[in-house]
């Protein structure tokens, strides 16, 4: 079902300043940077010697406009699956609170909650570069 904690979203006031901090001060590298429309940019950074979990530097104001329920005051955890339909069905059958599956050009995903109401995003990547972090 879930095979990895793949991304942790950091909600930032300025993506370029955040990118500079993580690359110039923390020694990270840009793993992916893609313009996703006129007002959205997707930026992933991670340790220069690593190949696992990355930080997604996501614009706070954009997220607040897209989904006002998201708490942009703390990071969000994104997990990966190879089969979104199967994972959705399995969590639903186990009584987990799940949102609708959203189908986006860069992957299919849904939110689910744990017993304390903490929200997580489970995503099935559809673009091969998004799985490997090679999109730039």
TrEMBL record:
<dbReference type="InterPro" id="IPR004360">
    <property type="entry name" value="Glyas_Fos-R_dOase_dom"/>
</dbReference>
<feature type="domain" description="VOC">
    <location>
        <begin position="4"/>
        <end position="125"/>
    </location>
</feature>
<dbReference type="Pfam" id="PF00903">
    <property type="entry name" value="Glyoxalase"/>
</dbReference>
<protein>
    <submittedName>
        <fullName>VOC family protein</fullName>
    </submittedName>
</protein>
<dbReference type="InterPro" id="IPR029068">
    <property type="entry name" value="Glyas_Bleomycin-R_OHBP_Dase"/>
</dbReference>
<dbReference type="InterPro" id="IPR037523">
    <property type="entry name" value="VOC_core"/>
</dbReference>
